[in-house]
């Protein structure tokens, strides 16, 4: 067992990567099943909130993450993993947590939709740009051959195709979509957790060795992400449900997508995948705790434009 996480190699096998891709596709299919024409119109009707959310995700969060990697002086592969995670869009887990917390579900779904659409172009470019601002990460990237077009194609396939299929299903088969929503999202979440836990269990020796090297960075990055979302919502003077929606949209990332990209494009840098997998577990944990606390603390009335649970419509 090597002691330098930058030298760690994580081999989870082709079957693991395929299973993760399938689950991500199901996740994005579930997101699209929940999208209504009104959500797309919301992007136009609420440009201030949507635009601020996207700017915070692809500008504010990467800046804060780069500064955090420099302040903690983390290893290069850890820095790449942290930057990769925040450059990925939100998933429909943020919609579920928003509903659980009594947040503005319509805003959450609109933000998730917008972030996934722009991620096809922005995620690959953002990863390359922001990693270049961390010397340790930049040095490792010089030794790794990254095909930017290949990453863009991978993101497009993982996001674009299932999302388009979900939109088509919701449009052509509304009855099927209404029934499928109840099972697709919670089922995909359970499967993703099982896959990540199973993958880490197969790398238990590495987990014990390196968890201490990344735990503080992941905990702080997750806290900063949630606080940035909360601060963005408050700065926009959104109502309490809107602030909660913005908190989860910035604080909960699609770590499954980050894990697939880590294994596909940073295969020789096991620390990148290690960070993405642990981030995913911690992400779910803090999201459930915060949404449960908000749910118990208050029971706000549903705001105008807010809807019921995404999984029950």
Describe the structure.
The chain is 79% helix and 0% strand. It has 313 residues and is mainly α. It has one domain (14-296): Up-down Bundle (Na+/H+ antiporter like fold). Helix 1 runs antiparallel to helix 9, helix 3 (47-72) crosses helix 6 and helix 9 (174-201) packs across helix 13 (270-297). The protein starts with 12 loop residues before the first helix and ends in a 16-residue tail after the last helix.
Instruction: Give the % helix.
Output: over 70%
Q: Could you tell me how far the N terminus lies from the C terminus, measured between alpha carbons in angstroms?
A: 49 Å
Task: Report the top-level CATH class.
Answer: Mainly Alpha
Number of domains: 1
CATH fold-level assignment: Na+/H+ antiporter like fold
Main sheet attributes: strand count, strand direction, barrel closure:
none
- Low-confidence segments, given as residue ranges, are none
Q: Structural class, from secondary structure content? A: mainly alpha
Radius of gyration: 18 Å
Number of strands: 0
Name of the CATH architecture: Up-down Bundle
SS field, number of helical segments: 13
Indicate the mean pLDDT: 78
Principal-axis shape: globular
The fraction of residues assigned to DSSP E strands is under 5%
Query: Which assembly state applies to the chains in this document?
Result: single chain
């Amino acid at each position: 067992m090597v002691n330098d996480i930058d030298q760690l190699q994580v081999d989870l096998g082709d079957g693991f990567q395929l299973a993760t891709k399938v689950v991500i596709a199901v996740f994005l299919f579930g997101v699209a099943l929940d999208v209504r024409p009104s959500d797309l119109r919301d992007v136009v009707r609420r440009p201030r909130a949507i635009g601020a959310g996207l700017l915070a995700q692809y500008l504010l969060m990467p800046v804060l993450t780069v500064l955090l990697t420099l302040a903690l002086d983390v290893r290069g592969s850890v820095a790449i993993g942290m930057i990769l995670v925040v450059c990925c869009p939100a998933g429909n887990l943020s919609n579920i947590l928003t509903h659980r917390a009594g947040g503005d579900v319509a805003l959450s779904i609109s933000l998730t939709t917008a972030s996934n659409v722009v991620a096809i172009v922005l995620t690959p470019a953002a990863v390359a740009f922001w990693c270049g601002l961390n010397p340790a990460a930049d040095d490792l990237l010089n030794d790794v051959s990254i095909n930017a077009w290949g990453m863009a194609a991978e993101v497009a396939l993982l996001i674009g195709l299932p999302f388009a299929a979900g939109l088509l299903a919701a449009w052509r088969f509304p009855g099927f979509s209404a029934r499928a929503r109840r099972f697709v999202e919670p089922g995909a979440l359970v499967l993703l957790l099982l896959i990540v836990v199973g993958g880490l269990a197969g790398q238990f020796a590495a987990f014990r060795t390196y968890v201490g090297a990344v735990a503080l960075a992941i905990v702080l990055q997750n806290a900063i992400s949630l606080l940035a979302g909360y601060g963005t919502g408050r700065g926009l003077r959104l109502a309490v449900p809107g602030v909660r929606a913005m908190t989860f949209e910035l604080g909960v990332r699609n770590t499954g997508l980050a894990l697939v990209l880590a294994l596909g494009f940073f295969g020789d840098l096991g620390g990148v995948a290690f960070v993405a997998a642990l981030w995913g577990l911690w992400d779910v944990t803090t999201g459930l705790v915060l949404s449960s606390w908000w749910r118990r603390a208050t029971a706000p009335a549903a705001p105008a434009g807010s809807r019921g649970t995404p999984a029950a419509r």
